[in-house]
Amino acid sequence: MGKTYVRIDDRLIHGQTVLAWCPTLSIAEIIAVDDVSAKNPMLKTIMTMGVPSKYKTNIVTLEEAKALLQAEQPHNRLLIVKVPSVLKALENQLGGIEQIILGNLAKREDTLHKVSGATGIFYLSNDDVEFLDRLHQEGQKISFHQLPSTQETTWTSFMKTIK
């Protein structure tokens, strides 16, 4: 059975995803979850135009993602969501994910916590922190990591900065 990795990145599918993360994680399938993008043929075309055909690419709604994640696959998958709340909505379908990798997330009205540097720029709300910290406490590996070649910031290190 293949592994499922999760990336939280508000850009969804982009060059770093395809050129750095997919080869590093031996990804065969990309699942980008965003209701707006999934319903917009132009956005789907723009996001997938730079993705080599060797990667099965899905840009799907939250509901479609639930069905896709239910099916076991023999290959590695990369699930990409824009914000942690989407991941929270998929929590029941995420049993056994390998790692949650936090990429970039723009500032929102409710964000209070900022991580920046080699990890990129990432803003989290208190709800985001609470949800991700619960997953971490349950044994999930979580880190801030812009590119496989850059420095990784562990969730534990981040939590020390806000307590």
From TrEMBL:
GO biological process entries: phosphoenolpyruvate-dependent sugar phosphotransferase system
Domain PTS EIIB type-4 intervals: 1-163
Pfam families per record: PTSIIB_sorb
Keywords of this entry: Cytoplasm, Kinase, Phosphotransferase system, Sugar transport, Transferase, Transport
Annotated GO MF terms: kinase activity; protein-N(PI)-phosphohistidine-sugar phosphotransferase activity
Keyword Transferase: yes
Location of this chain's protein in the cell: Cytoplasm
InterPro entries the record matches: PTS_IIB_sorbose-sp, PTS_IIB_sorbose-sp_sf
TM stretches of this protein: none
GO cellular component terms, semicolon-separated: cytoplasm
Keyword Kinase: yes
Protein's recorded name: PTS sugar transporter subunit IIB
